């Protein structure tokens, strides 16, 4: 039963990769090369790298602990439910464990291992019954649904900013700002239907410009208080503003990235290019016009 379940999951992952148009073997090779390199760069650039890796590991385990997945496993493999959940949790956590152990982060590695066995025992969180009021309009939908879905993440970034101010750690304050912008980018991971796009009744280019402007405007509601607090409390104005402007450029790229493969999800190659921009931002001057051109071509068949 265990082998059968793992085979099913492996086939699903393999088919998902194949649908992107990238040869699976090539993607596996790229992942094996890119993962150690990105980890090394992360540890070189910030002292928060171990916490980011451990946090991402635990976040993935929480994502696995969904009601629908658990119900499927219980329905088909009830006798082996916990064994399967522990095994797949360990497989998902293994790359993060290796990263932490290579850099001698034993306590965080132990925390991840404890999470592997404890999170499957927990009941999935139930949605909050009341609707969270937001300052955003229903059109477009990204910031309304995104704020409600990731409200705790936004709150965590502001708590992190408070810690940065209390301990006078400017870099941690910048990390909190980038965390807010990263959360705003997550809002654009959900695709809308063709009808909602068609309903704008604009040209493709105009539609993309409007979407980018709305993204910047709505993101300002979430990020400007953090930017002002960081700049004033640390008396660092130029650097804070410049880095915030750079984060806005990444947000624009994310909006264009979303529609570069519409109505499908962006492929893996585009995702890799987007990730490379994090390490070499000048690539944005190439990627933004490219994504704008590709997205416009995609949307012309709808608008």
Automatic annotation (TrEMBL):
| Record key words, sorted | Membrane, Transmembrane, Transmembrane helix
Q: Which residues cross the membrane?
A: 21-40, 46-64, 84-102, 150-167, 173-191, 212-237, 243-261, 268-290
Q: Which domain of life is it from?
A: Bacteria
Q: What is this protein called?
A: ABC transporter permease
**Organism name:** Polluticaenibacter yanchengensis
Lineage, broadest ranks: Bacteria, Pseudomonadati, Bacteroidota, Chitinophagia, Chitinophagales
């Amino acid at each position: 039963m265990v082998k059968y379940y793992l085979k099913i999951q492996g086939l699903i992952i393999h088919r998902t990769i194949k649908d992107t148009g990238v040869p699976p073997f090539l993607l596996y090779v790229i992942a094996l090369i890119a993962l150690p390199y990105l980890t090394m760069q992360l540890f070189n650039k910030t002292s928060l790298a171990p916490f980011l890796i451990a946090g991402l590991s635990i976040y993935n385990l929480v994502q696995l602990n969904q009601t629908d997945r658990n119900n499927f496993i219980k329905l088909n493999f009830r006798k082996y439910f916990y064994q399967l959940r522990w095994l797949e949790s360990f497989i998902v956590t293994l790359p993060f464990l290796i990263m932490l152990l290579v850099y001698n982060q034993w306590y965080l590695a132990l925390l991840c291992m404890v999470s592997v066995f404890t999170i499957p025992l927990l009941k999935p969180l139930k949605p909050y019954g009341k609707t969270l009021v937001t300052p955003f309009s229903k059109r477009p939908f990204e910031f309304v649904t995104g704020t409600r879905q990731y409200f705790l993440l936004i709150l965590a970034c502001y708590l992190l900013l408070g810690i940065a101010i209390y301990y006078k750690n400017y870099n941690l304050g910048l990390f909190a700002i980038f965390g807010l912008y990263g959360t705003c980018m997550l809002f654009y991971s959900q695709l809308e239907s063709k009808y909602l796009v068609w309903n704008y009744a604009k040209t493709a280019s105009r539609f993309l410009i409007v979407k980018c402007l709305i993204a910047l405007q709505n993101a300002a509601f979430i990020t400007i208080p953090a930017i002002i607090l960081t700049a004033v409390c640390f008396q660092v104005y130029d650097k804070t503003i410049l880095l915030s402007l750079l984060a806005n450029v990444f947000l624009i790229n994310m909006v264009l990235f979303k529609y570069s493969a519409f109505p499908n999800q962006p492929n893996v190659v585009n995702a890799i290019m987007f990730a490379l921009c994090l390490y070499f931002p000048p690539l944005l001057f190439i990627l933004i016009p490219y994504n704008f051109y590709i997205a416009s071509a995609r949307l012309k068949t709808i608008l």
